[in-house]
Each structure stands twice: as C-alpha cells, then as structure tokens.
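Please fill in the sequence for the structure shown.

STRUCTURE ENCODING:
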C-alpha cells in the first residue's frame, strides 16, 4: 500500500547557505569600508584650562595662539606626510614643553620646596600600548621619555629618579634645573599663588590617515604641590586615553578629580557601552559631573570618525586644532 501522506521538509540547506553568504558578505563590506583608502587626519592641542582674564592684552593672546599654532604645524606635518598619530602627538607636545608660556617642561610651576616635578603620558589607540613618567626632574622632554617607556620597556609608568635614569640610558636629552626655571614661574612661586595666568598642562590628540588614534599629556603639576604629589597627567585612563574603537582624550585641570573618576576613560566607556557620541560623553564629564563636584578643568578629544571636542568649565582653555584641508584655528575663551 502506497503512503500518499505529504511530508514537509524544511529547506535548511539553502537557508543555511544564504545565511553564511550574507554574513560573509557583510563582514567583507564592513572590512572594506574600514580599510577603504586614507582617512582625513585631525590634530588637536591644549595648553591648559584655567582662569586667564578676558581682558588679557591682545598681544598676549596672540602670542599664546602663535605658540599653539607653531606646535600644531609641526605635528600636522607628520600627519600630512602619512606619519603615525602617536608621533604627531609627541612632536607637538615636545614643542609646547620647550615653551616657557606653558606649565610643562621649561617654565613648569614649582613644588612647595621650589623644585620642578614633571609628569607625562602617551597612548596608542591601535593596541592600548602606553607609556608614562612621573616626578621626573632632569628629562628635558618628559613626553619623549613617556614614549620610550611605551616602546622600549616592558612597563607603563616609571617615576622619579628611576624614570630620569631610564631616559638618560635611552639617550634622551637631559637638563639641569636651570633649564626649567623661568622668571615668571619664580615670581609665582615666591608669591605662593595657587593659580597663574598660564595654567599650563599641555596635551594633544590625533587621528592619522590610517584612522589610528593617539593621545598624550604633559605637565608640571599644581603650583606649591606637596613633595611626591602626582596628578592625572601620567595616569592612563585619568588624564590620557586612546582607543581606536572610540576616541583619544587628553585632560587638563584639577587632577585629583580626573583620577577619581577616570575622566579620560569615562568618555570612552560611555561611547562604547552607552553608545553616546564623543560630544555628549565629554560634555557630561566636564560640564555635568565635574560641575557638580566643583572641579575645574577641560579636555580635548577626537573620535574614530574625526569629530573633535574641546569642552571646559573654566573661563579659558588654550587650544588649537586642524583638520585635513582646513585652516588651523587657535582659541582661548569660549566661542
């Protein structure tokens, strides 16, 4: 007897084939889109958030802007030639460290005992490689020492005399205390000011033409700080952060708060986990969270798409930026 009962067979083979084909095609186009030619480079600098008076003489304002633009141009040249973001960051910050207008390297503010104690960090967004130095006093350019810690050691953070010795062994240029001291910093120290017109921490963030992100920060710290005090600038995740999946951030301000809330990483985390934009995440940290805590400061940032931010909750923040194909700009007050 013939069984005429119809048995439905689910066509799993063609459906499975279509599913695999669809996934493979999607992955291919996702990869192709991410690797489709050069990206537009971006470079952003800051020279510290603080309390520069709005009636600052115009000549003084222009002098600050010129110095920021000079550092910006040096970093941009590296990006323009196809160089890496991390090298553009290091180059720009090194120039700002050599300039006594800023509180980093030469012209850094003094500690309570009248010495200098310098901090710096740098991070590569490609692989989370990072390097930092804290409490150094003989390295001419702390940001270069931080880069060498990243590239030529198995560590992330070196401090004090050990960091100075490491930098010397790396062949970096050293300097005696006379290089760092300036008349302006000496006058401010002698007057025991808590704040100066040149607030000073410097930093840079960049996206190169391969789409890689990097960030770096360098500072002389707080005027009259206690011996051994370390702020956020050399702390990865607090004062500096870079991740190709989200953003690159450099911070400036009251370091203790940036450390407590992991400010730089907080921006990245909110972008990745809450799907916030760079603008929303950075604005929240600086103008919501920190305002409630009465914490002064600011940050600069660039995301994976080349968008930039420069939020601050103080009267001023020295800053400059350039995007490929656009004229560079330097700013001091809110605009």
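FILLED IN BY: designer on duty
SEQUENCE:
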């Amino acid at each position: 007897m013939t069984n005429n009962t119809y048995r439905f067979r689910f066509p799993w083979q063609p459906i499975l084939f279509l599913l695999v084909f669809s996934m493979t095609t999607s992955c291919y186009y996702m990869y192709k889109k991410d690797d489709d030619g050069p990206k537009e480079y971006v470079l952003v600098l800051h020279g510290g958030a603080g309390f520069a008076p709005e009636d600052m003489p115009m000549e003084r304002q222009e002098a600050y802007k010129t110095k920021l633009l000079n550092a910006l141009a040096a970093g941009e040249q590296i990006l323009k030639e196809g160089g890496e973001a991390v090298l553009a960051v290091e180059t720009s910050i090194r120039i700002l460290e050599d300039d006594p207008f800023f509180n980093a390297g030469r012209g850094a503010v003094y500690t309570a005992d009248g010495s200098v104690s310098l901090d710096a960090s740098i991070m590569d967004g490609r692989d989370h490689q990072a390097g930092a130095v804290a409490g150094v006093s003989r390295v001419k350019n702390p940001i270069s020492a931080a880069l060498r810690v990243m590239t030529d050691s198995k560590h992330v953070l070196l401090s004090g005399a050990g960091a100075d010795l490491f930098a010397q062994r790396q062949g970096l240029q050293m300097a005696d205390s006379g290089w760092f001291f300036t008349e302006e910093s000496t006058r401010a120290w002698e007057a025991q000011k808590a704040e100066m017109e040149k607030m000073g921490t410097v930093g840079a963030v960049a996206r190169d033409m391969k789409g890689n992100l990097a960030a770096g920060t360098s500072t002389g710290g707080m005027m009259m700080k206690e011996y051994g005090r370390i702020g956020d600038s050399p702390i990865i995740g607090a004062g500096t952060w870079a991740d190709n999946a989200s953003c690159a951030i450099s911070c400036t301000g009251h370091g203790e708060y940036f450390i407590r809330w992991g400010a730089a990483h907080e921006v990245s985390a909110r972008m990745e986990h809450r799907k916030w934009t760079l603008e929303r995440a950075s604005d929240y940290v600086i103008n919501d969270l920190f305002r409630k805590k009465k914490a002064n400061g600011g940050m600069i940032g660039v995301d994976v798409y080349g968008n930039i931010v420069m939020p601050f909750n103080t009267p001023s923040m020295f800053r400059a930026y350039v995007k490929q194909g656009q004229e560079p700009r330097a700013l001091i007050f809110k605009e």
